[in-house]
Amino acid sequence: MLKDEIISTRPGRDAYVRIPRQYSKSDPTFATTVRLLSNKRLRQMELVYAAIGTVFEGLPPEKQEFIQMKYWSNKYSDSRIATELFVSVSTLYNWRNGILTAIAAEMGYL
Predict the structure, then answer these.
(1) What is the domain extent for residue 18?
(2) Same domain, 57 and 30
(3) What is the CATH number of the domain that holds 65?
């Protein structure tokens, strides 16, 4: 996991945050907390996760089932998902595009 990687490694140049000298060696918990809170990749992943959750919860049940089958179980082809949901493959693509647009809007990209 990314959090474990951040905790166990020293920050690189891009993730460098100045930790006051009195805390750096005497308080490893503080130093770890600062690294976690200041990591750009982790903040971006948390933003994406929150946006996906918000959009997913607002979807109708058939679109939620589509997301679960397509991305979370990752067992089914598009044609199998379409058959299971009684829609066409092009409808699935339209749903996917709409869902991705909603996630982008939720993240502030649109």
Answers:
(1) 2-38
(2) no
(3) 1.10.10.10
Provide the token pair at 40: 């750009």
List, as own/partner pairs, every contact residues 63-68 make where C-beta atoms lie below 8 angstroms and the sequence separation is at least 24, other chains included: 63/95, 63/99, 66/92, 66/95, 66/96, 67/99
pLDDT digits (tens, 9 = 90+) for 4-50: 665 565 555 444 455 555 555 566 676 677 666 666 777 788 889 99
